[in-house]
Amino acid sequence: MSLGGPAPAEPEPAVSEDDEKSSTWTGAARRWLLRRLPPDKLLPDDQPSYVASWIYVFGMATIAALVFILISGLVLSLNGPQWYHVSELGHFVNSVHLWGVELFFMFMVVHLWGKFWMAAWRGGRTLTWITGVLSFLVSIVTAFTGYLLQTNFDAQWIAFEAKDALNATGIGAWFNVANLGQIFMWHITLLPLAVAAVVALHVVLVRMHGVVPPLDAADSDSQLTSTDAAPSESNGERS
Amino acid sequence: MSTTGPDMSGRTRDDLVSRPWRGAKRHYDLFKELTIGILVVGLLTLGLSALLSSPDDTTVTLRQWSRSAPADFIATATAELGGTSDSAQYGPPYNSTPDATQTLGPIDLQSLSGVRIPIDTANDFVIEPLKTLPVPPAAIRVWTAASDAQRTAWTTDYTAALAAAPDNDPSRVKKGAYGPVPALTHALLLMAGNGALDNVIQAPGQFYNMDYTRGILFLGDGAYFPGLAQAQHLTGDQWGVMNETGNYPGQSWLWLFSFWYQIEPFSSAPNADLLVVFVMLVLSVALMLVPFIPGVRSLPKWIPLHRLIWRDYYRKK
């Protein structure tokens, strides 16, 4: 620091050096995050050679279906739960919401079975598997509340029928399927947030750990030893 | 961990499964694939929506019930007055009927909440709605002044008389000492037929209402509403809530949940709901914990579908 009088400003230290030295919680968190999930791991432009099957499409397809569910759901909720009964456009948006959900589950189940037969939890990917199953379960509850929100005959019957399982477990006293106000809040706020959060965590974990290698892969495989299989910087360890 | 094959657990080790991949790579564009995915799935979703639309069968109302099946309506209203309907004897969270809860050994979760959504069927479904009429029936006073034993005698006798009448037709019931019950149930039938009961039953005297518990329970106590559901293949013994009105796939992902209700010992168990929820809970947790379950986690090794998925890799191995 200069002692009075204008002095030429000292050059700011480089951010990266500061990063290494910073003892703040924020700096430590940033270093941890960048080490676990460097940008080229988060947004990769290459994949291991074994990622070459149609089965790998279904995870992405599930997310694509979710996008349409969220958009159509937003339009439906902005217009209120009764709108689609009286509007042709509303009915179409409702159909998009329904078929989005049907496709979402279809893709998700294929994805789940695919990952099971690949034993995709291997090599420290347990949490990826668990968050995947969790997103399946939370999605089921979310879809169920959507069926209750249809404000039509189907919704009336599902509310009547489903109350028994919920009451038998004591949940029905707080999660009342016949209380439209409650169900509306669950379906358009809490549960979509839960699905989005679990799916986001799942995707981040997939990026963090990478796609699981084949069951019978060994260090002696030609794809690990041949000259065109040089270690790539992008997937190398960083510290 | 097996010494003869790949480690099927989820643990991290210093091996090629746990390490970042150091072998051959292929070109991949995350954003391009996402964009193509959204386009293709979008076309599929919009195409299915345009082609197949979605079901939207209109709600069943108390007005419709009272006009289409007046005898069933009167019989149900009598059961609500006499406290013999399913709702009246449900137990928590609606009321405190003794021994009505589903239990599993000493586990009685249904009782934990207590009566959190109180429903007194005689008052909430019949008497209070009738009081909102411009000229409430005089029978209300007679009912209110009577003892519990007297009320029970009236409703029991009227229930038996309705059951014995040709076509259960209330107008052909034998004369008897039914007190104010016929007048009350007929007044409720008229009120429902005029469409006045539908809003009043949910929340008497309220402008706003977002809670349909009472209306749904009252409908469900009759035979008309379940009959409509049966015709739409929606009842519990028809795989229940996983179905949808019309020819639509519904919540097919609930198939395993519905499945248990179709087989013994669940289908005839008085605590079927609790048993099924318990089984599904165990199975859901098990699915989540597959990486920790020896045997199950090794299935992919024993049934090598992975050979198909990774056939290119194995061919060049």
Write up what this structure looks like:
The complex is a heterodimer of chains A (239) and B (317). Chain A is mainly alpha-helical. Helices cover 64% and strands 1% of the residues of chain A. Chain A contains 10 helices and 1 strand, in the order αααβααααααα. Chain A has helices spanning 15-21, 25-36, 39-42, 57-79, 83-86, 88-117, 126-148, 153-168, 180-209, 222-225; one strand spanning 46-48. In chain A, helix 4 packs antiparallel against helix 6 and helix 6 (88-117) packs antiparallel against helix 7 (126-148). Chain B is an all-alpha fold. In chain B, 34% of the residues are buried. The mean pLDDT of chain B is 94. Classes of the chains: A mainly alpha (239), B mainly alpha (317).
Short recap of the structure:
The complex is a heterodimer of chains A (239) and B (317). With 239 residues, chain A is mainly α.
Beta-strand fraction estimate of chain A: under 5%
Given the structure, what is the number of helices of chain A? 10
Tell me the structural class of chain A: mainly alpha
Which structural category do the helix and sheet elements of chain B fall into? mainly alpha
- How many strands, which pairing sense, and closed or not: the largest β-sheet of chain B? none
The CATH level-2 architecture of one domain in chain A is identified as: Up-down Bundle
Q: What fold name stands as the CATH topology of one domain in chain A?
A: Cytochrome Bc1 Complex, Chain C
Measured distance between first and last alpha carbons of chain B: 24 Å
Rg for CA atoms of chain B = 29 Å
Task: Give the mean pLDDT of chain A.
Answer: 88
Mean pLDDT of chain B: 94
SSE run of chain B = EHHHHHHHHHHHHHHHH
Rg over CA atoms of chain A: 25 Å
Please outline the helices and strands:
The complex is a heterodimer of chains A (239) and B (317).
Chain A: H1 15-21, H2 25-36, H3 39-42, E1 46-48, H4 57-79, H5 83-86, H6 88-117, H7 126-148, H8 153-168, H9 180-209, H10 222-225
Helix pairs in contact in A: 4-6, 6-7, 7-9
Chain B: E1 25-27, H1 30-52, H2 62-68, H3 70-82, H4 109-112, H5 121-131, H6 139-145, H7 148-164, H8 181-193, H9 197-200, H10 213-221, H11 224-231, H12 255-262, H13 272-288, H14 299-302, H15 306-309, H16 311-315
Helix pairs in contact in B: 2-3, 2-8, 3-5, 3-7, 3-8, 5-8, 12-13
